[in-house]
Amino acid sequence: MLEGKKVRLRAYSKDDLKEVLEYINDYEVKKYLMPGIPFPFRIEDEEKWYESNNPMGNGKYSFAIERIEDNKYIGGCGINDVDWKNSVATVGIFLGKPFLNNGYGTEAMELLVGFIFNEMNINKIKLHVFSFNKRAIRSYEKVGFKVEGVLREQIFREGKYHDEIIMGILRREWHKKTAVE
C-alpha cells in the first residue's frame, strides 16, 4: 500500500497474528507501549482486535509494517484517533525487538505521516511517548515531531515514575521538511 526503501505499510492479515502476539508480549516491547500493567495478550485478544479493524474507517486505521527485502512482518503502526473537527490525528507504532535500530520504525512513521497529511488532509499529528523510550524519541525527532508537552511522573514502570511526553508535527512543518529533502 505505502512503500519506502526498507518497509511497506499494508493491511493486516490473519497470518500476521502469531507474530503480532509474539512481538507485543515481549516485555522489552510492551513496556514502551502500555501505560497500565504490561500483562500478556492472548491469541483471542489479537483475533478480536483483528476482527474489529474496519478498512472503511472510523478514525482508526492499522497498518502492518513489512520489511521489503523478504516481505517479513516486523511490527505495526496506525492512526489511533482522528479529531475531524480540529484536524488532529493521534498515531502510534511498535516493532518487534529483532527489528529495532535499523531505521525501519523511522521510515514507517514517515510513510504514515505522509499518508495522513497528503491523503487525509489532516493539519496536525500527535503522539505520546514515555520519557525512558529514548530510541523512539530520537526517531520521532528525525521525522520532524517536536515536544509539545510533558505529563510529569505519569507512568510507573520498573519501580519508579516517568514522564509521558506529547509530541506533534504540523502539516506545514512536514511539507517544509520534505520539500528540502
Automatic annotation (TrEMBL):
Annotated Pfam families: Acetyltransf_3
Residue ranges of domain N-acetyltransferase in the record: 7-172
Coiled coil: none
InterPro entries: Acyl_CoA_acyltransferase (IPR016181), GNAT_dom (IPR000182)
Protein name: GNAT family N-acetyltransferase
